[in-house]
Write a structure and sequence with these properties.
Order of helices and strands: HHEHEHHHH
Structural class: mainly alpha
Radius of gyration: 21 Å
Number of helices: 7
Largest sheet: 2 strands, antiparallel
């Protein structure tokens, strides 16, 4: 209970600050504008996807069953390409209310975990710079640490991953700074 009563302000302020920073990054800054490309035959592809799936989910083409990884026909398909994944969503992605709400909750959970880790390691009354370094480090792990996995295992372009990691560095800087600014001197 001491944690909640003492740290609700840094947690909430960090959540709001990172949420606003992510809005600025994705809505106002230009560096993510080229992350996605349009298919040349989008209508035909949408029709083929609609006819070829059972519903929303992750799909792989060609589909690789681990038991068949040595099958010469599958190897030839993969060599000839294209090879990729498709994520099919339920609903309209232009209606962002649910996604924004989930993003806020996710940011709130990360701010809570980062603040709790700093509290357990540093305690009350720690100077701004020490809290900022520790909180920023934990936030950087949360926001950018796993991003390279998407390029390594799922073929996402490194240029996109590096931009997302740079965004993660910004979010970590914001979260660390705000948590440190509102860090309580006494419990």
């Amino acid at each position: 209970m001491v944690f909640v009563m003492s740290f609700w302000l840094p947690i909430l302020c960090a959540t709001v600050a990172v949420f606003l920073a992510s809005w600025i990054v994705w809505m106002l800054l230009p560096h993510h504008k080229g992350d996605w490309a349009k298919f040349k035959n989008e209508e035909a592809l949408i029709g083929a996807v609609r006819d070829g799936i059972d519903g929303p989910g992750q799909y792989q083409f060609p589909y690789v069953d681990p038991k068949e990884m040595k099958d010469p026909e599958l190897i030839a398909k993969c060599d000839d390409g294209p090879v990729g994944t498709v994520v099919v969503w339920r609903g309209n992605p232009l209606k962002m209310g649910k996604s924004l709400s989930l993003h806020f909750v996710h940011t709130l959970v990360l701010a809570t975990l980062v603040t709790f880790a700093c509290y357990r390691i540093l305690g009350f009354g720690t100077v701004y710079y020490s809290v900022m370094k520790m909180a920023g480090f934990f936030a950087l792990l949360a926001y950018a640490g796993a991003a390279p996995t998407q390029a390594i295992w799922f073929g996402r372009p490194w240029s996109v991953i590096l931009k997302e990691m740079a965004d993660g560095f910004l979010y970590a800087l914001v979260m660390g700074s705000v948590i440190a600014f509102f860090w309580p001197y006494k419990g």
